[in-house]
Amino acid sequence: MLLALFWTFFKVGLVSFGGGYAILSVIEHEVLQHQWMTPEHFAEAVSLAGMSPGPIATNSAVLIGFKTSGMPGAVVSVIGMILPSFLIIIALAIFFYKKSNNGWMQAIFYGLKPMVAAMVIFAAYRVGAGGSTVLGINAHTAALVIIFAFAVIGTAKYRLHPLVVLSVSALMGTAFFY
Question: Are 90 and 17 in contact (CB under 8 A)?
Answer without folding.
Answer: no
